[in-house]
Amino acid sequence: xxxxxxxxxxxxxxxxxxxxxxxxxxxxxxxxxxxxxxxxxxxxxxxxxxxxxxxxxxxxxxxxxxxxxxxxxxxxxxxxxxxxxxxxxxxxxxxxxxxxxxxxxxxxxxxxxxxxxxxxxxxxxxxxxxxxxxxxxxxxxxxxxxxxxxxxxxxxxxxxxxxxxxxxxxxxxxxxxxxxxxxxxxxxxxxxxxxxxxxxxxxxxxxxxxxxxxxxxxxxxxxxxxxxxxxxxxxxxxxxxxxxxxxxxxxxxxxxxxxxxxxxxxxxxxxxxx
Length: 274
Ligand code: IPD
Ligand code: CA
Hints:
Radius of gyration: 18 Å
Number of strands: 15
Structural class: alpha+beta
Order of helices and strands: HEEHEEEHEEEEEEHEHEHEEH
Distance between the termini: 43 Å
Mean pLDDT: 94
Strand content: 15-25%
Helix content: 25-40%
Number of helices: 7
Shape: globular
Largest sheet: 8 strands, mixed
Bound molecules: D-MYO-inositol-1-phosphate, calcium ion
Strand order of the largest sheet: 4-3-5-6-7-8-9-10
Low-confidence stretches: none
């Protein structure tokens, strides 16, 4: 890839190659035993040697092919290239291991999540479950795919029959607020699921394995790739009251479920609290 403006397909091709090899590293390091566990924002927010090693590997691999790009990663922040500016600027958004607590416990729900932003817009994304090899991809305008299958989300239209995935932050005060929201929602839906990896949750919503997903407190690396995959599968991906999906709230739901879920979450002040 030269210095000319890349296509979304070219960026996805590189993302795939890099994410697959990163996922191999995560899985191999898990098999060798989880090491160097430290904590970040709270005592339950862990980071392992693998989170850091995978991020370093991805940054090095991207830098080799596209040295002028920026990479925003969860563990090291913005690590390569100048700040993206000018037409054709590419920024990669990386969660080296989404689902770190699952990784710690050996639960098979942890993923490498890698997205490419072109001129500030996410145009390509891959989420690869490192434990199972499941892989979801999307390019802007090119649909969402898993294993050659085009994804189109759930056809459920009744919120009362919807299986809704969500997640919780690491901060106890935030969790207390999230628990209140959940208490108000769980009586209004079929059931809820908490798998422990936001990127995978978004992909499960994209493929219709859950009907919808919402969460407060996500970082860009948690939802950049999975959000594109869900949107390209035809889901509405947004925050509250027309806001873009972001730290206040991410809702991903098929059009028929979005409004009733949004209304219920707004009434429960899902974007509020700490
Ligand atoms: C976390 C997971 C979890 C979600 C948290 C995230 P991490 O990411 O995606 O499902 O509920 O909000 O922080 O720490 O495993 O990369
Ligand atoms: Ca992570």
